[in-house]
């Protein structure tokens, strides 16, 4: 393994582990906020349902009044509604609607005009722009507004006042149709009020208390409706946590359809890293009054803020401990690696060098010679092998002891190293026998010169513990490729010539 990658790898591992710790804490935070989301969604749905139930109670009393109390006249109806407006400022308008079949239209207009002392005609809100989308029930019935009590200035689309046919406004007709079909209060989709705020209409049949005949079959069905402000469907101060978004829309419209959207609030932008790391949770509930017609969705894009100060501290501490452990591990690994390399080098040295003199041993020498022969085969040059055997070494041992002999062998090795070039190989074959490998030999004379230098150096006296010892040396030479191309053959030739030299020296 390459040791230089150890620190970057440890750093990467540390980053990955830190990210995992972050994810673990984030998922813990997710579990906590799941229950909070459940609580917030349930509370909001409940709140909306309560507000709509209260509104329906207003509508019920208006419906009851319009069924039984009409003989008291419009003044009483006005005063009832004005009392309701005071108690419930979110109500913008109260209105009563009647079904008038096409055949009765003229009689209705005549009678209404006479009662009010001014012309009343059934008209569309803006027939040119808003043709009815739904087939009118009962083969061309009209649903004109027969009574209207505004809390303040009349907001559109109701400003055309009496006689306006609510079935000509598609979203109002939709609510009317629903309430008629289910005999329950029904909500319209939200629409813009004149003051730029949103409002909605809640409408219900007003004649359900009439049991005979069945209300649906009554020739002049009555409906009462309230127009309210959308703002009051939810508490004014929502106090949403960061990242939480509340959406409320009419069930008959898609979530993405802006027409059906009552509310979309609390959207908080999160950074891309937070969006990637933290999930977004969402809960949807249907809500409403007696007939749930609204969809509530609370979504929560979680982020760093969901992790508390204590968790941050624990995470930082864990990251530091991890860093310390990793650095300790890397240092230990590096130390082990350095020790192992040193041990290997030591073993290599022991296996390839002579323990006494530190010179190469026979193994290493043969290996070097092998390499040198391969090289010379390519470049066509020559090698020289010098075999050195000391003369009169045995008496040193015998006279001064083995330790002194060892010391002399070490001095011999040192002198060999001084005389030879760095690129030459010198090895101790054993006892007082040494071998030298000279590479790139150009001429025999060069080799003879080296032999002479060796002889001069080795014949110099040796000082051992105050005594002086003088030795001789016999050198045998062999050349590659002239004397053979195998190590054994070359050594045999060198041995032979060395032996002759020794005999010559002994004869002198
Ligand atoms: N001190 C010491 N002596 C050794 C070692 N290895 C071998 N010897 C001795 O070295 C001597 C070598 O013998 P020879 O080569 O016959 O001795 P010599 O006196 O040089 O004789 P010639 O070579 O014939 O001149 C022997 O006495 C060995 O015991 C060693 O590591 N240390």
Order of helices and strands: HHEHHEHEEEEEEHEEHHEHHEEHEEEH
> What integer is the average pLDDT?
86
Which structural class is indicated by helix and strand composition? Answer: alpha+beta
Outline: rod-shaped
Give the proportion of residues in helices: 40-55%
**What is the CATH first-level class name of the largest domain?**
Alpha Beta
Identify the bound ligands: guanosine-5'-triphosphate
- Please give the number of β-strands: 16
End-to-end gap: 63 Å
> Per CATH, what is the topology of the largest domain?
Beta-Lactamase
- Backbone CA Rg: 55 Å
Number of helices: 12
What features would you describe in this structure?
This is Diguanylate cyclase (GGDEF) domain-containing protein. Helix 1 (6-68) packs antiparallel against helix 7, helix 9 crosses helix 10 (402-419) and helix 10 runs antiparallel to helix 11. The protein is rod-shaped, with a radius of gyration of 55 Å. The strands form four sheets. Strands 1, 2, 3, 4, 5 and 6 form a six-stranded antiparallel β-sheet that branches. With 508 residues, it is of the alpha+beta class. The chain folds into three domains: 34-227, Beta-Lactamase (2-Layer Sandwich); 244-306, no CATH class; 362-507, Alpha-Beta Plaits (2-Layer Sandwich). It is built from twelve helices and 16 strands. The structure holds guanosine-5'-triphosphate. Guanosine-5'-triphosphate binds next to strand 11, helix 9 and helix 10.
Characterize this entry briefly.
The chain has helices at residues 6-68, 74-87, 105-116, 137-140, 170-182, 272-277, 309-352, 362-379, 394-400, 402-419, 444-459, 487-507, and strands at 91-98, 145-150, 186-187, 191-192, 198-205, 222-229, 244-250, 261-265, 280-288, 292-301, 382-391, 425-430, 433-441, 462-464, 467-469, 472-480. By secondary structure, it is α+β, with helices and mostly antiparallel strands. The strands form 4 sheets. Strands 1, 2, 3, 4, 5 and 6 form a 6-stranded antiparallel β-sheet that branches. A 4-stranded antiparallel β-sheet has the order 8-7-10-9, with helices on one face.
